[in-house]
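Long-time lurker, first post. I've been practising inverse folding by hand and with some scripts of my own, and I keep getting stuck on stretches where the structure tokens seem ambiguous. Below is the full token string for one chain I'm working on. Before anyone asks, I'm not after the true native sequence, just a reasonable design that respects the backbone. If someone could post their per-position residues I'd love to compare against what I wrote down in my notebook.
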């Protein structure tokens, strides 16, 4: 990547989100769980390449094999990142306390709703995979009536990109796009909005949340086309999708039947804190082993 890459260039041209993901895929951060200086060195090396190639600072982090250490969140917060994807313990984004006091939002990746797991481990065919994606979406959508939910699908080009599998993704995207109160977001967008909610405080009213300068515009006509594109497709996922990342979506509780150019804040903004989950909570930062192949 640090020598140039046509795939990265194509992603940047389309405005797709790229997340920092270790300097070497096989060099796990957990190899240095007792050497914080070395771990920081690897993270900084990765972030430098990201800056050089992408032309802007990285905002988020995904550890190789999801294997972070007890120091990783603190290090990446100190290095200016705002979200991490290694913690798989919730269906909502949430803030994690860091030793520096800088905000860090956990926006979970998934090893379950993941093409490698579904196709390679479970042996699902294309219809079976679609059913897994749809069932996950339908249940979270049902739960999101009162409190917003986040969904993503882990994708790898060498898995989902096979011609006999790609229909599962195409059909699921077409299905999810029928719901006009679902927001297809990047993790950076979700992290920025979640941080704003925390800054507003637990007592922020629904009106204050709606008034935050966030959201996007829904263009008139065209099956709910938006000016934000799904991170797994071309600029319009109705044409030539090219899976490279993960589907992310949130539902806005109580929103339906929106007209053209209506404001659509994501569920992370409109949800109320759950009684058992404070806005700011310290997450159990235990390295999560995984044998999944990562893109």
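-- Answer (accepted) --
I ran through it position by position. Result:
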């Amino acid at each position: 990547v640090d020598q140039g890459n046509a795939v990265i260039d194509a992603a940047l041209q389309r405005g797709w989100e790229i997340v920092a993901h270790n300097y070497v895929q096989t060099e796990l951060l957990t190899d240095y769980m007792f050497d914080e200086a070395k771990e920081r060195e690897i993270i900084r090396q990765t972030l430098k390449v990201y800056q050089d190639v992408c032309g802007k600072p990285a905002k988020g982090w995904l550890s190789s094999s999801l294997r972070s250490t007890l120091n990783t969140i603190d290090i990446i917060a100190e290095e200016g990142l705002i979200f991490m994807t290694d913690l798989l313990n919730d269906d909502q984004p949430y803030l994690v306390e860091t030793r520096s006091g800088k905000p860090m939002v956990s926006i979970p990746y998934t090893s379950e709703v993941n093409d490698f797991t579904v196709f390679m481990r479970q042996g699902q065919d294309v219809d079976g995979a679609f059913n897994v994606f749809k069932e996950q979406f339908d249940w979270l959508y049902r739960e999101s009536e009162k409190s917003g939910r986040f969904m993503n699908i882990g994708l790898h080009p060498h898995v989902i990109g096979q011609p006999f599998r790609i229909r599962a993704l195409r059909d699921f995207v077409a299905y999810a796009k029928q719901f006009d109160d679902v927001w297809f977001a990047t993790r950076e967008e979700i992290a920025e909005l979640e941080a704003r909610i925390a800054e507003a405080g637990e007592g922020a009213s629904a009106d204050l949340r709606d008034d935050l300068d966030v959201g996007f515009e829904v263009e008139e006509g065209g099956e709910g086309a938006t000016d934000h594109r799904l991170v797994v497709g071309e600029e319009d996922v109705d044409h030539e999708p090219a899976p490279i990342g993960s589907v992310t979506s949130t539902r806005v509780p109580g929103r339906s039947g929106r007209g053209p150019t209506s404001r659509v804040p994501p569920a992370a903004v409109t949800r109320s804190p759950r009684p058992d989950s404070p806005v700011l909570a310290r997450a159990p930062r235990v390295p999560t082993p995984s044998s999944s192949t990562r893109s």
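A couple of notes from the structure itself: Strands lie at 60-61, 83-84, 94-96, 104-106, 150-154, 182-184, 246-251, 280-281. DSSP finds ten helices and eight strands in the chain. Happy to go over any region you disagree with.
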